[in-house]
Amino acid sequence: MSEQTTDKRVREASRRHFLQAGAALAGGSAVAGLGGSGALAESGNNLPPNVPEWMKAPGAPMGSQPYGAPSTYEKGVIKNISKTLPQYISASGRTPLQDLDGIITPNGLFYERHHGGVPTIDPAEHRLMLHGMVDRPLVFTMDDIRRFPSQSRIHFLECSGNPVYTKPYGKTASDLVGLLSCAEWTGVPLKTVLNEAGLQAGAKWIVAEGADAAALTRSIPIEKCLDDAMLVYSQNGERLRPQQGYPLRLLVPGFEGNMNVKWLRRLKVVAEPVYSREETSKYTDPMPDGTAREFTFYMEAKSIITRPSGGQKLTAKGFQEITGIAWSGHGKIKRVEVSVDDGESWQDATLQEPVLTRALTRFRLPWHWDGTPAVIQSRAIDETGYVQPTLAELVAVRGVNSFYHNNAIWPWRIDANGEVSNAQA
Amino acid sequence: MRRLDLKLALLVSAIAAVGFAAQAEERYGIGQPATQAEIAGWNIDIGRDGSNLPPGSGSVERGRVVFSEQCVACHGDNGQGGIGDRLVGGQGTLASAKPIRTVGSYWPYAPTLFDYIRRAMPQNAPQSLSNEDVYAVSAYILSLNGIVPQDAVLDAKSLAAIKMPNRDGFVSDPRPDVHDH
């Protein structure tokens, strides 16, 4: 089935999931998940002046969770995965962006997209082969890779089909742009490893291949390989999760997610791209005149308000913090502007430090909601001066079938009851 | 402990080769030489010009059998699609309001079909088909799209010689393509 259909089904099912899980979210704050009011059982027994139950007996002993898990009260905060896909081998699952704070995505909630399922790879039997236009073709073990000087950097990863241009648009921030996450990655700069093999004259591209059942293959321009590309083995301090490419993945910061080849087993240095299925049949951007753009690598500047956002509910007038995330494949976020009057006027949001290159940046704007309907939205401006466009501006150039690289502004409508929904839907 | 193996001469040529003012970097002497046999076993990607296609050949006739045994469950009896992508039709629709993108209407290069089927299909058992059967089922899919005749037999040379209908349909990335406010 097509990716278009997959996405639509993912969105619909995730909305159903959200309605069920909403009760567990953000309970007690002035922004609640839809249906959240009164969902938390409040017997009163644990409230002042009474002594709470959990103070009257010892808690769980040390060792009851050798690998920690979130509180059982947070069990609704999970990946946004459709329950009705025809197959789950080539599929995606979204990060619940509206339930997260800060800029780092917990490893268990990092978005997933794979084309041949998630392989179980024994690191002792995993090898990286580096060959093609090099002086010394080499094979590396995982121990070899970890012997190289290491680096840690924080970068976002985003799928380029996030979201598509056609209706129905998603209900929640996760439905819309949940194929987006951010982590601290540790590994070795690719250029260090290339230097071991010695690039030959005419080397212009590197073909990266995964050790999964799709043997997923993408061509990466040599400029990127010698710039900030990394071979990564750890994510947020621990070894990569299987879903993120354990034991080794490629990271090409700011380039579309698919190019960050997981379960990396081979790098072949070549003079021209290989024109694999994943860079011809897919991950090319169709235009209204019947042509398609190829090698559209960069993820352009984008932002979204995550609170208040679709599916949530404002439960009180008065102070409301508006917060969200912004990011750009071209570098740092310079400014985020927020409008609370349906785009009439814009004000600068505060950016949370540190503002990092090709990483999520958290923004905030204090706001007083007067209880009347409002449309709120954010737009990102990156250090190149690029301004995040509206959906109408994008569609005017690309039409509605372009599928990839939709970085439009997504406004949220707040109605008089405080319910928040997608203003484009 | 790591072995610092500074080979400036090699490094300078590498830097000159790619035209970058990179700083001279140390070599660490990490990794084992890859043997020809190791490379041959893993080096499966096929260039758009058909480079690296293996010996062997396959007919449309044989491909029909492979397809009915191994592909129809997901791609439909006639490649019309199902759990897996539609593989047939759509020529002439790319500039319409409802473009249909398939091997026949959208793919720019025929050797990519061999490459992808060999590495990733059938989805439940990738890398299980013989090279002959990959040629055959590629020929069959191309025949369903009217790109090769019913009696075609494809090998490295004839597969590489095919000009796909949408060969010239791709343009480079012009972004940023939306003007600033």
TrEMBL record, chain A:
Where, if anywhere, are coiled coils annotated? Answer: none
| Record-annotated Moybdenum cofactor oxidoreductase dimerisation domain positions | 297-409
Q: Name one GO biological process term.
A: sulfur compound metabolic process
Q: Which Pfam families match?
A: Mo-co_dimer (PF03404), Oxidored_molyb (PF00174)
List, alphabetically, the PROSITE patterns matched.
TAT
Q: What cofactor requirement does the entry state?
A: Mo-molybdopterin
Q: What are the residue boundaries of the Oxidoreductase molybdopterin-binding domain, all occurrences included?
A: 115-273
**InterPro entries (alphabetical):** Ig_E-set, MoCF_OxRdtse_dimer, Mopterin_OxRdtase_euk, OxRdtase_Mopterin-bd_dom, OxRdtase_Mopterin-bd_sf, Sulfite_DH_SoxC, TAT_signal
Which one of the record's GO molecular function terms can you name?
heme binding
**Membrane-spanning ranges:** none
Keywords carried by this UniProt record? Metal-binding, Molybdenum, Oxidoreductase
Q: What name goes with this protein?
A: Sulfite dehydrogenase
